[in-house]
Design brief:
The chain is an all-alpha fold. It contains four helices and no strands. The protein has one domain: Cytochrome Bc1 Complex, Chain D, domain 2. The longest helix is centred in the first third of the chain and has 42 residues.
Amino acid sequence: MKASRFAVQALSLGIGLLLCLPECLHAANLSNATRGKIILQEKCGRCHAVGADGESPLKKAPPMRDIYARFNPRELQAELSEGMVSRHKEMPQIQFSNEDVYAIMTYLYALAVKK
């Protein structure tokens, strides 16, 4: 009798977790998107616009949302991982960790989806 009650509780818990999964994944992506925005503000915001609108502080620096639109996502991911190279000598070459790249890409994707 106890085993069947345990099985019912375990099944109920499993169903509850499955029902929560989409919401939990959405919350995780929001967290990554927020982290991505913070990273971009810290590392790129001095020159590039980081938000969904607005001009870049440095006129010749394209907004990050435009950079996302210019690149194939896999190419942009590789560029961020390897240290994006620019023709502008003022731009620092920053290599982001895999976790940072994922967060940045999540944020930029969220911006693209809002359009």
